[in-house]
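Hi R.,

As promised, here are both runs. First protein below:
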Amino acid sequence: MPEQQHVFGVILAGGGGTRLWPKSRNTTPKQFLKLTGKDTMVQVAAMRLTKLVPWDKIIVVTNTLYVDAIRNQLPQIPPANIIAEPEKRDTALAMLTGALYAMSQDPDAVVINGASDHVITDEKEFCRVMEAAVEIATDKKNLVAVGITPTRPDTGFGYIKIGDHLRKTKAGLAVFKVDSFTEKPNATTARAFLSTGKYFWNANMYVWSAQAIQHAFEKFMPELYTLTAELPKLNVQDFHQALPKIYQKATAISIDYAISEKADNLLLIPGDFGWNDVGDWKVVYELGQKDLAGNVTISDGESVKSLCINSENNLIHTDGRLIGMIGINDLIIIDTPEILLIVPKGRSQDVKKLVERLKEEGKKEYL
């Protein structure tokens, strides 16, 4: 693809993951955990992007607290490409900052936005879809969302409704006009959505030219546009030094509320490549390698230690200690030096309630 030379990858790696507590904590959020194999989530995300762009065109937008962790886990990425957000301002400013940094390196930059904590099982298809999205975004007129083909009426995701079918890409992928966005629906609504065939999961997976997204902010979020307008003109050092003042003044808002729900040039390409956002421990179990009894045992260390007798369909995350189980089924057991979590697999979404209680009680040492 001739446009490939202008493509950058931006990884957002500043978030948390309270439903994966107590492994995911303020100091070690889920992108730095080994949940699906020998590599951490952010390492997997970066290596996946290298199938589309070289290491020196991968940009990571993260929190100031996590810069050292990113450098340690991804030494192939140039240090200047690791952007430290001095304050959390949600996804709109993070994505804009990543795009403007790419624009400072190449005025014709096209950006593939990716998360640091998603699982994708069919990377070949992922690359095919992203290359198609780049093809569309290179015109600098349209913003492109990759909508995930839903496999179930899930209430944990937002949905994107498609409108008219516009054309096909060179690879034969359909391109649709985006009709509307819906935040997380109830179960009845989600089932109704799936029955129409017109709804896709919103994975915040966007591809756009830096010029197009900057213009969108100029139109729909002029205050953020004004704050950041000079960034693409700065050298690398000045770019980084300019961020604290910008973030201090900036509004915290998601990219969907700021741009996606307002833009009239947003298109969608369906993606069906085994995507999962690893939102809770039950998902980790479903993705894990199971033994003959259906148990999944994982560890941050090299050795994986559990001993199960008459115990089935459990998730065991060890911290180096041997965990023994007798007659235990369908549980999640997460062992850390300070905290032991035990929860029925069917209630894994409720882990966030423990985190909320700890916040209410001011027990920051456990967060």
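And here is the second one, sequence first, then its structure tokens:
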Amino acid sequence: MMRMRQRREPPPWWPANEPWPMPASRHRWPAGRARFFRRMAVLAMVVLLGGVATAIALVWTVAARFGIVAGSPAGAIVVIAGAMLGALCTAALILTGGMRFFGRPLGDVMDAAARVADGDYAARVTERGAPQLRGLARAFNTMTTRLADHDRLRRDLMADVAHELRTPLTVIQGKLEGLLDGVYPRDDRQLGELLDETRILSRLIDDLRTLALAEAGTLTLQKEPIDVGALAVDAVRAVASEASARGVTVGAEASPGLPAIEVDPVRVREVIGNLLTNALRHTPAGGSIEVGVRQVATTIEIEVRDTGEGMSLDDLAHAFDRFHKGPASRGSGLGLTIARNLVRAHGGEITLASKPDRGTSAVVILPQRKGSG
């Protein structure tokens, strides 16, 4: 049996109001495993012997009643005693093999479960024994793999959030210290720069909240029949002034006769806005961004195309990862992640196609519900 190592610190998920390490009364699987299996073996033997004795007694009684055998009580006792002795030996052999066949795989799962309880998500179980036991081991390994992945993602998220919050906070702190020390003049320009940093913080916090709700499946959608084409035109109009200042042309085109679909207009507008903002960041002066809305079979597709710098294969593969940013990116790295989660919350999907120096195309596919037209 593998010896377990006790963690000095509690695992991340351990309740703050419970003592650590775990009291012995709550963590005695390894020590009590042999006792548990011995009791199960004794119980199985008692049940088996009782069943054999009862069956022999019934057969003897019936045989004696019909005169097949002599009905002597002493003879019955001898026969029953002999049968029970034989059954005992047979049961001992069967249970010994059975305990090896079933007990060891179950013991492995119990040991590994105790290690997981200690926060060791690397615990795995060898798949052996009966098909049901192999299935149990396989399910256990899948569970621990997912727990390990979730724990890693949680740690990565905390590190990324701390990093993203540190940058604007450092700028704000430095600016304020400079103002107090007289390094920077106390004018509207300096105050405006501080206000911009607070807006970055506010946007980051709002993005994190939206992302957390979407990934937890608790995001509430206020759906209503909406003309997505008109929604795209409004989103383009909102970024038109910024695009003009950057020297980028932006436009929208919707196919005529598009049916209204049941979506949350605020969230779909946010998706289009994130895609447009991302396109603006990566499209140089003289470039263009086009938004197209069309009906394809039973879906509505929204495509945002730009003539920007495009993405490498590696950036394209990780584009939807949290906080993933390309070398020249100035955003938080959450825009595409949030967009995908919002689209999936509507039962849709989003895809990206891009090549370096050839621009990027993002396509949002929204299902057209029956009766939404």
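A quick note on the second one: Residues 1-6, 24-31 have pLDDT under 50 and may be disordered. Let me know what you think.

Best,
J.
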